[in-house]
Amino acid sequence: MSESPKIPADLAVDESVIRQIGELDLTRGRPLIVSDADEVLIQFLVGLERYLETCGLWLDLQSFALTGNIKHRDTGAPVAPGEMPALLEAFFAASTRALDIVPGAADALGTLSERAQIVVLTNVPLGAREARAASLAAGGLPYPVIANKGLKGGAVRRLAERVEAPVFFLDDILHNIASVAKAHAPSHRIHFIADPRLAKLLGPAPDSHFHTGDWAAARHFIEERLAAGGF
Q1: Residue 30 is inside which H or E element, if any?
Q2: Could you give the C-alpha distances from 3 to 7, 12, 15, 56, 67, in angstroms and in order?
């Protein structure tokens, strides 16, 4: 008996994500903006640092990574990799509703929403989805939220199939942008990093079309592409 072909990681989609996408009310033929949350819509790093202080920890920004860079303040020793999932889950549980919105995000997406649909695709635990949506809405970003797992290419491809229109994808993580490039090559990909300290650690994603940490610039890029496509 032959085995079923393995789905490439760039196309894999968790069942919970498939269900969330199926629940969305999307308009076929209308452009879609798919935005990450952390360091795109939400000031993740600043909020994480505040939380770590309450735990006797600190973030040593030596590289664009959390594992190995979160350290105990008293000893300087890094938090063990095996302890990181629980630490981040506790952070999201305690801080999701208190994270600050990236300046300019609400105004830019508010303007763009007149010409495109908007969905937030964020790698938070499914249990934190409602809190994240409430936090974003309170900050002027009342858009549907999908709690994703793993790479984002498969989810974006499914969303693109729903709308059959131009898709714009914004994320701060290189491998998410690469994943979307493989899964849905026609997408317009923006490498967005809000915190300048993080932006200094990375150059533009090779698979991105535009790199910025400024929402006015991102809006202008999207508006130009929409106009070029007749939208």
Answers
A1: none
A2: 12, 17, 20, 49, 35
Residue 206 is encoded by which pair of tokens? Answer: 């090779």
- List Cβ neighbours of 224 (8 Å cut-off, separation of 6 or more): none
Domain boundaries, the chain: 15-43+100-228, 45-97
Contacts 24+ apart (CB under 8 A), 12-20: 12/150, 12/151, 12/154, 13/154, 13/155, 13/158, 14/148, 14/149, 14/150, 16/126, 16/147, 16/149, 17/146, 17/147, 17/148, 17/149, 17/154, 17/155, 18/158, 20/129, 20/146, 20/147
Helix axis angle for 84-95 and 44-54, nearest 10°, is: 100
171 sits in which H/E element: strand 167-171
Fold of the domain spanning 15-43+100-228 = Rossmann fold (3.40.50)
What is the Cα–Cα distance from 158 to 98, expressed in whole angstroms? 31
53-86 residue pLDDT tens: 999 999 998 888 899 999 999 999 999 999 999 9
Report residue 161's pLDDT band, with 50, 70 and 90 as the boundaries. Answer: very high
Cα separation, 187 vs 32, in Å, equals 10
pLDDT in tens, 99-155: 999 999 999 999 999 999 999 999 988 988 999 999 999 999 999 999 999 999 999
pLDDT band at residue 11 under the 50/70/90 scheme: confident
Q: Which DSSP state fits 22?
A: H
Helices 215-228 and 105-112, packing angle to 10 deg:
10
